[in-house]
Amino acid sequence: MIRLIQRDQQLTTHQTGCSNTHTDFLPMSNMDSVNETLERSYNLSVWLAHEASSLLELYIDMQGFRDGPPRIPDDHLQLPMPPSPDDEDWEPTRRLCQHRTACRLLATLLDRVLGEQRELNETRHHLHQQLQLAITGLQGLDANLSHVLSSLGSGEEEGDGQSHVLSGPSSDTAHWEAKVNGYHIIAHYTHWVARTVEDLERLKDHLKPEA
Amino acid sequence: MQGYVTLTVYLYIQISVCIRTVDSFIEKPAYIIPESPVIALGSRLRASCILNDSFIKENKVDANQIFWNLKGIRVSEDNYHTVNSTVSNVTLNMSSVGNALLTCNVQLNEDQVITVFGIQIKVGLPPEKPKNLSCITYHRKNMTCSWNPGNSTYLPTTYQFKLSIAPDNLKSHQLPNDVNSSYAILFPNIHYFVFNTIWVEVKNDLGNTTSDSIQLDPVDVIKPDPPVITSAQQIKNMSTVLSVKWEKPSVPATYKLKYILRYKIVGPQNWMQVPPEDTDTQKESFSIQELKPFTEYAFTIRCKRNDETGYWSDWSLEKIGKTPEAKPFRGPPIWRTVENLDSSKRRICIMWKELEKSDANGIIVKYKMTIKKKSSTNIKKIETKKLEYNITLSDGEYEITLGASNSAGDSPNEILILPAVTESAFLPVQNVSTYPQAGQLMVEWKSPGSAVSGYVIEWCEESIKDSCSEPLYWKTVKKAASKVFLKDNIMPFKRYKITIYPMYSGRPGAPRSKLAYLQQDRPASGPLVHLKHVGKKEVKLMWSEIPVKEQRGFITHYTIFYRSCTANETSLSIVVDAMCQEHELTSLKGNTLYVVRVMASTVKGGTNSSEVNFTTLSYAKGEIEAIVVPICLSFLLITVVTILFCFNKRHLIKKYIWPNVPDPANSRVVEWSPSTGNLIQNNLGPKEPMNPDGVISDVTIIEADVDDEKYLSNEDEIKQLTSLKKEKSTSEEHSSGIGGSSCMSSPRQSVSDSDSESVQNTTSTVQYSTVLVSSPGYRCQQPSAQAFARSESTQPLLENEEKPDEHAYGNFGTCSLGVKRQYFKQHTSIEETNLNKPHPNEAERLDDTNEDNSFRLNQMEVSDQNSHLEGFCPTVDTFQSSNNQTVVKLEFLGFRPGLETDQQSYMPQAVKHNSYMPQSK
Predict the structure, then answer these.
(1) What is the ipTM of this complex?
(2) Which is nearest to B442 in space by CA: B369, B334, B514, B339?
(3) d(CA B273, CA B266)
(4) What b/e string do you get for B111-145 counting C-beta neighbours within 10 Å, with b at 16 or more?
(5) Which residue, B137, B572, B811, B856, has most beta carbons within 10 Å?
(6) What's the mean per-residue pLDDT of chain B?
(7) Which of A41, A137, A146 is opposite residue B166, by nearest beta carbon?
C-alpha cells in the first residue's frame, strides 16, 4: 500500500508521548490506522525475532564461543529487563512504552556492537548485515510504536533508556570484553524482541474492534 | 637538514613576494557586473561594463568607446548605452540554452580594439517537479525508487532523495551527478513494515522544487525472487500424475505468498496453468493430474504476496518431470507392398511405423503380428522387434493384425486386409491435388464415400520417368481428413509420385496418383538439341527431354531462340508446348549461319541448352533439280531437234560440210594447160562462165602440219617452201587474213602469226582456200589468171574445223602421220552441189545417189589423194585480188589443190610458179 500524502501534513501527524491513553475515544479512522500500524509492528517484530535468533547464532559462531558464551553479570550492562508476560498489571500503553524504550536502547547498543564488529571482524559482512537489519528493524519498530502511542494519546516518558545507554561500556573496552558485551546485547535483544511479539499480539487482540 | 628547511622557507618568501608584485601590476582595465550570471531561458540579462579610471587616463578613452560582443558577435548598439564616462549598460534577451561569452570591448582608435573584460553567461531552465515517483523492493537486495525528472535544465542540478519513517528519523541521500531519475536504498537499511515517507527535492541556480511524497511500506512493494522447484516426481501406479515441490523465496516472516504453477510437454508446446486458487495456499507442493503417460513435462512457478500487494516474481527455472509408462494407446500403422511372383504367389512386404510417443505410452519392446488366410483356421503368429516382415503368400485373401507391447501391456490390434488377386478394388479417391504450403506439400483429395475408414498416402521420388525409386514413404490418415501435409522425406526440387489409397476397414481401395514438387526451380540443365533437317529456309530441330532428376520442376514450355550471325541481328524466339520435342523453324534466310538454343522452362524460370550453329542451304531440296533438269531437258530437246533438223536437212548439211570436190584430174585446167589450152578455152570461155550464178564462193581451208620436211619431194620444193614461209613471216599484209582472224586465236597459229621459229618448226600451218567469186569482175577474170590467194575472210572457222582431232581423216597413209588438218568450207550453194559430180573415173566406186556414201566417198577421196601426196611438198602462191574480188590464199601442204573441186567450178588452187603439175590419178 502506497499513500500519497503532503509532506508537511505527514510531518505533523507524528506525535510522541506515553503519558496518556485515549483509546476509547479515538475516531474510527484513527483506530484503523492504529490497528494497521500495530499489525505492521507485529509483523516486524515477528520478522525481527526470526532474524534475531539467526543473528545470535551467527554472532556466537563468529566470535569463537565454541564452549558457549561466557557469563557476565547482567548488571554490568544495565540492560532493561523485559516485563514479565504474566504480569497482572498488564497495561497496553505502558507496555508499548516499555518496548519502545527498549527498542531505542537496544538499537543504540547494537549500533555500538556493529561498530565494534566492523573493527574486529572487517570481512564478516553477513554479520554486519544482520546487525544492521536488527538496528533498522528496531528503528522501524520504534517509529511504529511511537505512532501507535501518539494515536493512543500517550505522551513520551522522560528519561527512558537513554541513561542506560550512556552508562554502557566505554569505548576503550577490550576486544574480548566487546565480544562478550556484544553477545549479551544480542541475547538481550533476542529476548526483548520475542517478548515484543507476544505483547503486540496481545495488544492486537486488545485493540481489535468487537464484532 | 636545517639548511634545506632554511632554503625552502627562503624560496617560499621570494615566490610570495613576486606573486604579489605581479598582481599589483596586473590591474584590471574594467569589470562587468554581474560577474557569473545564470539566466533562465527567454529572460533578459542586464550587465554593466565599468572602466577603470587608470585605464581611461592611460588610454584617453571613455565609455562611449565601449561596444559588446556576445559569443564573438558584436551586439547591436540598440542593446547598450553609455551611462557615464566609465559605465556602459547592455540588455540581452537570452534565447538559447548553454554557455555564452559576453565581452566588453573598447575601440581605442580606428584600427585598435581591446577587450577589457568578459563573463560567462549560463542560460538554462529551472528544475521541473519530478513526477510518477514509485518504488519496488527486491528483497534482501534493495528498494529502488524511480521518477520522471522532466526536461533537462542545462544547468548543474542536484537531486536529493528524502526518506522518513518518523519526524526524528529523516534521511537524505544525494544522487550522483549523472543520475537524476532513480535511487536505491540498499538492504538492510530498508525499513520493512514501517510506512516510509519518500520524496525527491531538486535544486539548481534557477530554483528548486519537490516531488509529491509517497508513503509506503517497502514490504508492500516487494518483487520476490522466484520460487525454486525442487522436484517433479512420479506417483506409483499413476501414469498420468506428477507431484511438483518447490521452495518459497526469501521473504520477511509473516509475508504470505501465493503461486502460479504452469506446465507443458517438453518442446514447443503451449503452457498450461494450474488454476491459481489451487496454489494460493501456503503449501509448497502440488500434484498435477491428467498428464500423458511416459511424457516429459516442464514445470515453472512464480509467486506474489497473497494480499495482492507487491509484484509477481519472475518465472522460476523449468523443472522437467516424466510420467510413467502406460499401455500403448493403439496399434502401429501398418501397410504393405505387393510383388506378384506368378499367378498364384505374391511376395508381401508388411511394414509398420513406430508409434508416436503420444500413442506408445512407453518404450515398445516388441510387435505381435498374426497372418490369417480367409476361410482358414491356420493362423501364423510372429513376434518381432523390426518394423517390417516379408512373406510369400498365395493369391487368396489374408487378414493381418499387428499390435505393440511395452512394459505396461499390449496395444489394441491394427488390421490390414490383403485382398485376393482376383478381387476388384474399391473406389479410389477423387480430385487429387497437391501444392506446396509453408514448406510442406499439401495433398488434398475428395473422399469416395462414407465407407472409408482412413487413408494411406504413399510417396516416392520419381528419378526416372514413370519409375519410382526406393525408398517408399507412406503414412496413414484418419477417416475425417481430406488433406494431409507431407513434410518428412520431401525434398525441394525433386519430383514425387504421390498415391492415395482409401482404406475400407483395413482393405485398401484403388489407388490414385499425382506427381508433385515441394518446391520447383529452373531446370538444372537444358535440353540436348539436334538438327533433324536443315533446308534453305527452314530447319527442323529436335531436342531430348531433360532427365527427371534435372528438371527440378514441371516443364511448362520450351522456348526456341534463334538468330542469324549477321551483324545487329536480334534474336527471335518461339514458345513451344512442353509436350513437343521437335519444331521446325521457317522463314529463314538461305545460305545463312544461324545460332539456335532451346530453353526449357518451369514456373521458376528456364535453362538454356548449349547453342547449336547451322547454316541454311543455298538451294532448297529439288531446287537444283528444278533448274538443272529443265536445262538438261531443254538442251536435250534442242539437241534432238537439232539432230532431227540436221537429219532432215542432211542433204544441205552434207553439201556444206562435205562439198563435192572435183577431181582436178578431170579439171579443164588440164585441158587448159599449154598442151590443152584450147580445150580450156573452149570449156571455160567467156561464154561459159565458171560460176554462172556468180553467187557462191566455195572456200576450203585445209590446215596441215608437216612434221618433217622429209615429206617434201625434192630439194627444190623444200627451198620453195622455206622461202614461202620466210616470205609469210615478213609479210605484214599477209598476216591479217583468215589466219589472223579471231577464229584462229586457237593455239594453232596461222602462218602469218607465226614467228620465225614457228616458221622453222617442222609443224607448219597452211590455210587453204578456194574461193569462187561471183562478182561480175571475177567473171571478167581470165581463167588463165591463176586465182590462188590466201583468203582474207574474217569468217570464223567452224568448230569441227577448229578441232582437227574430231575430224581426223583417218589414216592418210604415211603422209598423214603427224599431220594436222583444218578443213573449212563455206558459201556453198545448192547449184554448186551440181558441180560435185563424181568424176567419171570414179563412177565405179562412188554412188552419187547415196549421200552418206558420198560423204564417205569424199573422205575416201581425200584419203586416196593424201595417199598420193606422200613425198609431195606444198607450193604456195599468193594471188592478190583485184578490187572487186575476194582475196583468197591457198596453201597446200602435202596434197594438191583442187582435189575436190568440181570441174565446172574449179579454180586453180595452187600452182607452182608457172610450173603447176596437174595430178593425174
Answers:
(1) 0.84
(2) B514
(3) 15
(4) eeeeebbebebbbbbbbbebeebebbbbbbebbbb
(5) B137
(6) 76
(7) A146
